[in-house]
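Exam revision sheet. Question 4 asks you to relate a sequence to its structure. Input first:
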Amino acid sequence: MKLVHASIPADDPKTAAEVLADIMGGEALPFPPAGADAFMAWSKDGAIELEIVPRGRTLHFDDEQGNWRPSSVSSRLSEVHLAIAVAKSAEEVLAIAQAAGWPARRCDRGNGLFQLVEVWVDGCFMIEFMDPGQARRYEEVVTPASWKAYLAQAALR
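Answer key, C-alpha cells:
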C-alpha cells in the first residue's frame, strides 16, 4: 500500500508547489479541481502527489462528491502534518526551504531515535522531510512491533 496523495493549504499555492516539487525533485502543475489558483507538486518518480490549495478553501460533503469551497473561518495552523522521504540530502532540503523564506531545521525525534528536517510551508504547515539515510533509519525503528514495545514499556497499551 501507499498514500496516493495529500492536500495541504498554502498562502501562495503556485510558489508552494514549485518549492515542494523542487525538494522532491519533481515538477509543479495546475490542479483545476480545487480552482484556478490551486497546484500540485509531484515527486520525480511520480509516487507522491501533493495538492496545494489556497488557505481557507475547505472540503465540503456536497451532493455528488466532495468539493472545495471558500470558508469564512481559516487557521494558519493545523492538526495535520506529513512525513516524506526524498532523494535530496538534509542540507539540500534546508537550503531550498530557506531560499523560499520558510522556517526549516534539523530535528532529532525520540532522543536520538531518528532524525529529519522540519519544513514549515508559509511558516505554518509542517512537512517532515527525510533524506535517504534518515528514511532508512526511520523504517528500521518505527514499525508496528517497535511501537507496541514502546507502548508496553511506557505502560500505555
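Marking note for examiners. The helical segments are 13-23, 90-99, 132-141, 144-153.
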